[in-house]
Specification:
Length: 592
């Protein structure tokens, strides 16, 4: 059986020593003092550990059941949902104009990390609702926002996003779902969507589906796509529920993981829909939801890696096997804990250094989102747009790898269902695929994001790294262990970007063949920057006598490990990028 311990000390370290949140000029951050964030995170952690995590195994074993068009979620899910609803946790960062608490996205991200670690499948129900809320708030009419958002925010209703169809996933221009205009201003939606997370369940009285469909006159491809609100149950003007809409769950997918979340085939048989935003501008509206979702999926990669590491470390401390090569560490016992063996420690250090670096990266990204949304800072908006595919792609690849490493720490026990750690591997696997596969994230990064704004945003990122190195080059404790490796890795990232600029026009396949390596190279530099920032903060806190000395020493040691053992991968990724397209594309199609 697995357990979950909220990473409260690390979260507080990031918020108050690294990001220095209360001193920020972002509106609302001044209220986030240590006592306030400590109280919120402690209670959220208690719920995660005591309410949500015990249901993780239940959800995995029971799954969801479809009968007569209705889906029953696993035992305990509805009570847990009601607990979050009653505590206001579903409305944490939502707009106060519609009943939300208006707290910063950063604090909601820290809470969300714990909920996802504790029970990823369960948390997806509210996660999808938050994405749908974001799209309606950004693109819906005032009447739509007033009608739907309050009950989505307080958890009375939930939401989904409906994109994929049997014949198309990434290429949404191929969708066949149709929207026909009606004389009363509504639309009749007909078609089938697949792989719809939380598409049908028993947690809420209504589900507000956001559906992409093609309306007449829009032309071919994505230009013809519009976005529609299609409620499971139609909503009267006064907010009460009316007749059941013509949308049904036609089946549940049988999946490798996240069994506790209902992944549905959704059939729309002339269902009543309501246009969101402008006609034939559905992709712009949907990307509002998808970008929120992609950052959330990156968080899932971190969160599953985090709980997997926790359980692997606990096993390694307790499992007795062999003796340390330098002499017995547990002379009164039959063997030493496997933690003493260098290769076991290597695996655990890989896990720990990723988890803590990724947590800092996600929180930094959340802070940019707050700055963009709360101050209208266009540069912050551009920067988080650049980093979104890195957060999603790199963190989910590495999160899955971390879960596998954790499983390996347990040896044969990790392969059995009884220990529970194999569930983290299965649940983490989907994060690399949904909300745009990681290959798509890499293409988005190289083809769209790298050159956006004339490349100024990418250059601004390089400036952030360069400025940090310059500001701290006089710090002898940082230079050799942190600043020099960061400078070298950042140079590799800039060299890769230069390679793409020089070759993309005449040999576009060269850029595309190297895009995945570039995403990982970018991710390593981001985590290298985070570790350098954490090392500076840990050193300053230790010198000032703030915080627990053992925690700070461990932070510095873990950071040195990442810089010495993980960040050098930057050179490998650059070498691969420079080989161009030939190694990838030369083999004839018939040879596969």
């Amino acid at each position: 059986m697995t357990s979950y311990t909220p990473p409260l000390e690390d979260q507080q370290f990031l918020l108050h020593e690294v990001l220095e949140v209360p001193g920020s000029d972002i509106p609302g951050y001044a209220d986030l003092d240590r006592d306030f964030t400590g109280a919120v995170l402690t209670e959220a952690g208690r719920i995660a550990a005591e309410v949500l995590h015990p249901l993780n195994r239940v959800g995995d074993r029971q799954g969801c059941v479809l009968k007569d068009g209705a889906v029953r979620t696993p035992d305990g899910f509805r009570d847990a949902y009601d607990t979050l609803k009653a505590g206001g946790w579903l409305a944490l960062d939502a707009d106060p104009d519609y009943g939300g608490q208006g707290m910063p996205y950063l604090l909601a991200s820290a809470v969300g990390e714990m909920f996802v670690s504790a029970n990823m499948a369960f948390n997806m129900y509210q996660g999808l609702t938050h994405g749908a809320y974001s799209a309606i708030r950004a693109h819906g009419s005032d009447a739509q926002k007033a009608l739907y958002l309050p009950k989505m925010i307080d958890g009375t209703w939930s939401g989904t996003m409906n994109l994929t169809e049997p014949q198309c996933g990434t290429d949404l221009g191929l969708i066949r779902t149709r929207a026909e205009p009606q004389s009363d201003g509504t639309w009749r939606i007909t078609g089938q969507k697949i792989w719809i997370s939380a598409g049908e369940h028993d947690l809420t009285a209504n589900i507000i589906h956001l559906v992409l469909a093609k309306a007449p006159g829009g032309g071919e491809g994505t230009r013809g796509i519009s976005l529609f609100i299609v409620p499971k149950v139609l909503v009267n003007d006064d907010g009460s529920l009316g007749a059941r809409n013509a949308v049904t769950c036609g089946g549940l997918e049988h999946k490798m993981g996240i069994h506790g979340n209902a992944t549905c085939v959704m059939d729309y048989d002339g269902a009543t829909g309501f246009l969101v935003g402008e006609l034939h501008a559905g992709m712009r509206a949907m990307f509002t939801m998808m970008n929120v979702a992609r950052i959330g999926v990156g968080m899932q990669g971190l969160a599953q890696g985090s709980i997997a590491y926790q359980n692997a470390a606990a096993f390694a401390r307790e499992r007795l096997q062999g003796r340390a090569v330098t002499g017995a560490r547990n002379p009164d016992g039959p063997a030493d804990p496997i933690l003493v063996h260098p290769d076991v420690r290597r695996g655990l250090m890989d896990q720990k250094s990723f988890v803590e670096g990724a947590r800092a990266f996600v929180y930094w990204g959340a802070m940019m989102i707050d700055r963009a949304h709360r101050t209208g800072d266009a540069e912050a908006e551009a920067m988080i747009s650049l980093l979104t595919p890195v957060i999603k792609g790199f963190l989910t690849d590495k999160g899955f790898d971390t879960a596998v490493l954790a499983q390996q720490t347990l040896g044969g026990s990790g392969y059995t269902r009884d220990t529970g750690i194999e569930q983290f591997v299965r649940d983490a696997r989907i994060t690399m695929t949904y909300e745009g596969t990681n290959g798509i994230q890499a293409l988005d990064l190289v083809v769209r994001k790298l050159g956006a704004n004339g490349g100024r945003t990418a250059m601004a990122f390089f400036d952030i790294v360069r400025d940090f190195i310059r500001e701290n080059e006089g710090n002898a404790d940082l230079k050799a262990d942190f600043l020099d490796p960061l400078k070298e890795a950042s140079g590799a990232l800039q060299a890769a970007a230069t390679y793409f600029m020089q070759h993309a026009a005449k040999d576009p396949e060269a850029a595309l063949a190297g895009s995945y390596d570039f995403m990982h190279l970018f991710g390593h530099v981001c985590l290298g920057l985070m570790w350098a920032r954490m090392a500076r903060a840990a050193g300053a806190a230790r010198d000032a006598g703030r915080g627990d000395a053992a925690f700070l020493d461990a932070k510095l040691a873990t950071g040195r490990y990442y810089m010495a053992r993980q960040l050098p991968a930057a050179a490998l990724h650059l070498a691969r990028i420079r080989t161009g397209a030939a190694p990838v594309m030369t083999l004839d199609d018939s040879a596969f």
